[in-house]
Each structure stands twice: as C-alpha cells, then as structure tokens.
Amino acid sequence: MAPPIGLMRKPIAHGTNNGYQQHKKHKTEVCVACRMAHNAYNAERRRLNREENPSVTIPIALLDKIYWQASPEVLAALDQHFGAKKLDALLS
Predict the structure, then answer these.
(1) CA torsion 13→16→22→23, rounded to 10°?
(2) Which of 69, 67, 61 is closest to 82 using CA atoms?
(3) What distances in angstroms separate CA 36 from CA 62, 71, 72, 78, one per listed residue?
(4) pLDDT of amino acid 47
(5) DSSP assignment letter at 15
(6) CA-CA distances (angstroms) from residue 28 to 13, 46, 56, 63?
C-alpha cells in the first residue's frame, strides 16, 4: 500500500541549491552536483552583497592618523558608525 499523497517526498532536484537544501532536510549525503550548485549560489550571493555593500580596507596606522586629526563632527560620525568600543579597540 502506498503512503498517503501528502507524506510522499518530492524527488531531490539534483544539481540545484534547492536539491542541496532537500538533502539537508532529508538528512541524506549531499551529492557533488548539489554541493557545487550550493557553492555557486553562495558565491553569487557574496558577489551581490559586495556590490551592494562595498567595503574598504584601511591600515590601522592611517585610521589612527585620520582619527586624531578629525573634526568633532567626524569623530561623532565615526563613533556612531563603528561604536566607541570598536574604535577604542582599533586605535589602542
């Protein structure tokens, strides 16, 4: 006798991020095709996130120099953006 329709599992969509999620949900070993699709999906998400939220790397010594020469308005903006605790840790 077949299980009721609502209890049947959908076949895994191999080679897709959804397939990866199905493997995880069903607690089965993730196949190579699904792992590669999941890695590609995550890489694309990271790329889009970098485009939307670009980051800048600045040497600590330069940040220190900028900080100590900054106007009170700039200092307040830095404190608000990073938080005084993080700035203290970076600049000490």
Answers:
(1) 100
(2) 67
(3) 40, 50, 50, 41
(4) 93
(5) T
(6) 13, 26, 40, 49
Q: How far apart are CA 46 and CA 51, in angstroms?
A: 9
pLDDT tens-digit series, residues 46-75: 999 988 888 888 898 898 888 889 999 999
Q: Is the pLDDT of residue 3 over 70?
A: no
Q: Which two tokens stand for residue 18?
A: 């959804």
The model carries a pTM of 0.54
Size of the chain in residues: 92
For 9-31, b where at least 16 C-beta lie within 10 A, e where not — what string? eeebebebbbbbbbbeeeeeebe
The CB-based long-range contact list for 61-65 (8 Å cut-off, 24+ gap) reads 63/90, 63/91, 64/91
Return the pLDDT at 1: 56
